[in-house]
Amino acid sequence: MFETYLLPVEAAVSLFPLVAALIMVPVAIRGYRRRGRAGGWPVLVFYSFVFYLTAAFLQTVMPLPVDTDGHCATSRYAESPQLDPFAFRGTIATAAEGDRSPANLLTLTPTWTTILNAVLLLPLGVYLRYRLRQGLIATVVLAFLTSLFFEMTQFTGLWFVYECPYRQFNVDDLILNTAGAGAGWLLAGPLIRMLPANDPLAERDRYWSRVTLTRRALAFLADLTGWLVVWTLTTGLLAVATDWTTGREHAFAIGTALGALWFWLLPLATGSTPGKRAVLLRVARPNGRRAGPLRLTARTCLVYAPLALAWLALADRTSALTLPDDATRLLPYSAAALAALVWGLAVPSIALGRDHRAFYERWSATQNIPLRARHDHRAAPPPAPTADASASAVGPPPSGR
Predict the structure, then answer these.
(1) Helix, strand, coil percentages, rounded to 5, for the chain
(2) Which helix (H) or strand (E) holds 24?
(3) What GO cellular-component annotations does this UniProt entry give (predicted)?
(4) CA 248 from centre of chain
């Protein structure tokens, strides 16, 4: 009997890494903006919540019929919804055949079906109270809507993917699921006292000013991902509006112009790339004053030179750009070597160095300045003074891409 319930959990274990990878960047950005960091206990709680929701949803739709036509031709029980409240009591009584002892009831499939329906959304009540700070009424309403979504998914045959419903819409499931979530909310009261406090404001006060390697790497990843997404959409829309050949011919030029805007012109105008702005960072001089065009241009050239060479190599490989044969052969190796040199030297010094400075920060006399979240109206203190803060070319305090 329990194999049917374990199958969705096994599927959730296989699916969860993909789900986590898809939401990792936005979740980390949200963490920096709300709590000043992307890791810690709240992140573990959040991803456990995501795994739980994935497993709960799969529990309501699996196992899926293999032979759709045969199932729809022979199975009719799910065509009509079960709208009689508390019908599970009669089902259990019939299965018990007059023996209502606990030992007998625990051997019955209807008993375990009822228990598991009550337990299904119990963790949801705990999460809603602890993680999202919802009250009992809001928890009950959200649990009811969640259960209703599950039941409608079943009754519509996975939203009409199947030609017929393969699981019955049951009002008892709505009742048991919602009651279980309410019980979870009540159980969360004593449980919260044993767990770390969920206080985003206190975390932000503690961590917002830390410009860590992880924070910089996330900004870099967000920038690279955002640039690729916008480039893909732009070239795709151009191809749709004109034709495929036109989209291909202009793809390299569009990507180059977009890259210059994204990684160079926007920082010149605002001090931040979109990725840096997302994690509340901006590039400035060591004393906090705005960095000039020469400093920012020098920094941009050093940090993004490997990407520029890789972009040229890709353009040549796809025939979007024609280069001499020698350049064609050398570009991929040059891009890899430059990446190893620039990033290979910068990452260890930022992560392990005593002052956490990268060489291109010394040369360009720039640094990353942490910003307060827009909704945080408390004044941000100026950057800490350093012995070499007045240097014009070298010596900024800890910073990095």
Answers:
(1) 70, 5, 30
(2) helix 2-35
(3) membrane
(4) 31
